[in-house]
Design goal:
Helix content of chain A: 40-55%
Largest interface: A-B, 139 and 140 residues
Strand content of chain A: 5-15%
Protein name (chains A, B): Phosphomethylpyrimidine synthase
Largest sheet of chain A: 8 strands, parallel, barrel
Organism (chains A, B): Dactylosporangium maewongense
Cofactor (chains A, B): [4Fe-4S] cluster
Radius of gyration of chain A: 25 Å
Oligomer: homodimer
Strand order of the largest sheet of chain A: 6-7-8-9-10-11-12-13
Number of helices of chain A: 19
EC number (chains A, B): 4.1.99.17
Family (chains A, B): Belongs to the ThiC family.
Shape of chain A: globular
Chain lengths: ~500, ~500
């Protein structure tokens, strides 16, 4: 069975959730990272667990300060302790990584419902799930259900990318019910406010939108401040032009007015707003490649350099920063992307969409991109933005959200293993041991998706007796290698000793 | 629309199939590699297209010779010319790679129905699909249907892993209806013949089974000749012991009788049989790791060295060889696997199962392993054995076969792109161009799975008018980046020229 447990920190109100899987046969339980939150149903708002921590700090100096500020002061906040317990690392590592800008802890002071988490290459690889309405599909209740569904399956953050009507109300419902940090792209709502015409966008309309969203509790915001006027012509020769929504909007604005991007020219003012709420920047890659042909091109790399410049400006304001990345990249160009981002953006956490490693499989882009995501995370990307099977085709529904989250949790965990994250392999070992010992129920309960694993097994062998059988329908009873191997095990140990004692000379040369 | 076309070679009866996708808007058609065969329905046996080539050679010397033999003589056979056209390479490259042992062209002289294909790291990465009955599931018709289904979606070879009753009849139906090479693991049938008891296995029973299968037309056979007695004790400390069915059977035999593996001691005799029919060896990795914990361990690597030794013996008999590989391997250990295989097995083609990059996601192992498969293929693996969502849980059904084949075709194509295979990217470019130009029908027809791509799009926008719309339900009409980007395109070109002429000095410094 899987159940939620809490580990208490240095104070009563630091209670870190884990999913504990109890195992049979005297095997010790396994504790897994848990993003599902308090799970109140129906959704009526989560308890504000961080409120006392925020209030206590606010009293110190009459205003809010960011986690980056405290880390730089050498202070370990309750949030930092929380994530240290969650990650199984020392709290000083969390503080030091945040202080160096290599990790962020997104947590708007107006989103006290969130359970703290950290994004940085020294920590577990995280997964973001995008949800949100579009003008032609979905409603508020449906989006809150997707949020709960996404965090149930392991989404570490959720971005609300709503466009169309009811943006404010949708976001309010999402933030109040979210145990994970919420990200947004404010330009979408700003554009709605000016009637959908990019040319009517102004800094003032944008600024007011950012303040509105920060007041609601949005934890990080994508800002396409690196789409500079002089970079736009670099996209003319591309196969797929500009594929970031925000990027295309800002490019249209710059080009039509022949003015520099107002997000760039007003960036310092934006930093001041972000600092007040501890909103983190997710510096958007508005010129990311949308096809294999456009990967790692001049436009993308020019913008990346600018994002590095903006990172330093944000850090001067104690504002936390991560950097968004592609997109569509063939496997052999993935490492270069990470290396350049690390160098040019001063090791600020990288947050990538996929990347998709081929363009030819619409309807399977959770897979084309899980390949790229696993690799880019192995090379150091801190958070992966999921891609669902509906990418390029339509708005994801509930099933698509689950498929996307699971594909990306697989990519993230594969990268944790490859990076040698302490404790990551214990999960694999526990499941494989259960598999070898035919503890079927333990296998299902340890699986990333117990429901589907159990139902696939039961398709051919539904009887409860099959749950203790030493085979499954794949090979049948006579050809189960694990059964044969297991029965050999005792014999082998005896033979092994005998064999070593005899000098190991049984080897016969090949007859030819 | 997609339709089958044939390209004729130097003689009338060399007709190489392609799937040609016709595009709208004056765009040139795209030709894709096609494995689907003549597609006769109901299955009543395919035409023996290679029969005249085989007969002509047989007349030369009163017996059969292998493709490796001819390649070493400097001869380009019709089969080699066929695959050269199929791959878009020079026939001499095919001949030279086969002659060097770096590629194989599996084609039993008794399977004249097969369309020639090549397996080697200089060619397109191939995908194998496993089908076959087990004692508790499936029948002959169902397996033939899976064969046709697998090749429709792109399987380059199919292995019939049937166990239980009707093995001979199942295989006969599969070989006679297969346009792709068929592989088997003869030990399964040999074991059935001795009543299922590994200890009763004999060289004679095995040899007779191999001859029976070679007579039927099996193109390559997995032989676990590298599981030596002295390696078996190396598996005692493993988390998952021996997970290869054939490996566990041979280990049981060796250990119980305390004799060396008869496949190893009789390997030269086996080569003589294989040479008579031009059956290729797929040297089995009976000690492959079955969990992350066991990857790249002593047992696996000891066996790999022996497979290298056996490769040279097979080559002395002009028999074609490929080498099977793992299994379960974390990402950071994948490259080492390929590098050692290349070195120790003299660059014979590598043929790997996955590898799965984590153990924790049963029901999603087509994804855990597509990640590893794409990477291992990028590093030089020539053929990937698919894994379906049912891996570890049950026998795959029709849907699982499709899910496995598509995940692996994605991995293979991603690797072709990463390796820079000539012509691979043309497919991606054509699809991305169609996407950018809102040619929805062209996108669907170019997709690896047109049916699913179309149905996902139509879930939210079923009207035929949506097939020409400049947006989809994902972002809706106002937020379609491609629409905005496309409308910018002409303007950008004009602005770009103006901008360059003005000296590119529009850049404004950040206001801070």
């Amino acid at each position: 069975m899987k159940r939620k447990v809490h580990v208490q920190g240095s104070r009563d109100d630091i209670r870190v959730p884990f999913a504990e899987v109890e195992l049979s046969g005297g095997n010790p339980p396994v504790r897994l990272y848990d993003t599902s939150g308090p799970l109140n149903d129906p959704p009526t708002g989560l308890p504000p667990l961080r409120a006392p921590w925020i209030a206590a700090r606010s009293g110190d100096h009459g205003g809010e300060r960011t986690q980056l500020y405290y880390a730089r002061q050498g202070i370990i906040t309750p949030e930092m302790e929380f994530v240290a317990i969650r990650e199984g690392v020392d709290p000083s590592l969390v503080r030091d990584e945040i202080a160096a800008g290599r990790a962020i802890l997104p947590n708007n002071v107006n989103h006290p419902e969130s359970e703290p988490m950290v994004i940085g290459s020294r920590f577990l690889v995280k997964v973001n799930a995008n949800i949100g309405t579009s003008a032609v599909s979905s409603g508020v209740e449906e989006e809150v259900a997707k949020l709960t569904w996404a965090t149930k399956w392991g989404a570490d953050t959720v971005m609300d990318l709503s466009t169309g009507k009811h943006i404010h109300a949708t976001r309010e419902a999402i933030v109040r019910n979210s145990p994970v940090p919420i990200g947004t792209v404010p330009i979408y709502q700003a554009l709605e406010k000016v009637g959908g015409d990019p040319l009517k966008l102004t800094w003032e309309a944008y600024r007011d939108t950012v303040i509105e969203q920060a007041e609601q509790g949005v934890d990080y915001m994508t800002v396409h401040a690196g789409v500079l006027l002089r970079y736009v012509p670099m996209t003319v020769g591309r196969v797929t032009g500009i594929v970031s929504r925000g990027g295309s909007i800002m490019a249209a604005w710059c080009l039509a007015r022949h003015e520099e991007n107002f997000l760039y020219t007003h960036f310092a003012e934006l930093c001041e707003i972000f600092a007040r709420y501890d909103v983190a920047f997710s510096l958007g890659d508005g010129l990311r490649p949308g096809s294999i042909a456009d990967a790692n091109d001049e436009a993308q790399l020019a913008e990346l350099r600018t994002l590095g410049e903006l990172t330093k400006v944000a850090w001067e304001h104690d504002v936390q920063v991560m950097i968004e990345g592609p997109g569509h990249v063939p496997m052999h160009k993935i490492k270069e992307n990470v290396d350049l981002q690390m160098e040019w953006c001063h090791e600020a956490p990288f947050y990538t969409l996929g990347p998709l490693t081929t363009d030819v499989a619409p309807a399977y882009d959770h897979i084309t991109s899980a390949i790229g995501a696993a690799m880019i995370a192995m090379y150091g990307t801190a958070m992966l933005c999921y891609v669902t099977p509906k990418e390029h085709l339509g708005l994801p529904n509930r099933d698509d959200v689950k498929a996307g989250v699971i594909a990306y949790k697989i990519a993230a965990h594969a990268a944790d293993l490859a990076k040698g994250h302490p404790g990551a392999q214990a999960w694999d070992d526990a499941l494989s041991k259960a598999r070898f010992e035919f503890r079927w129920e333990d296998q299902f309960n340890l699986a990333m998706d117990p429901d589907t694993a159990r139902s696939y097994h039961d398709e051919t062998l539904p009887a409860s007796a099959a749950k203790t059988a030493h085979f499954c329908s794949m090979c049948g009873p006579k050809f189960c290698s694990m059964k044969i191997s297991q029965s050999l095990s005792l014999e082998m140990q005896a033979k092994s000793e005998e064999f070593v004692a005899s000098g190991g000379q049984v080897y016969l040369p090949v007859v030819s």
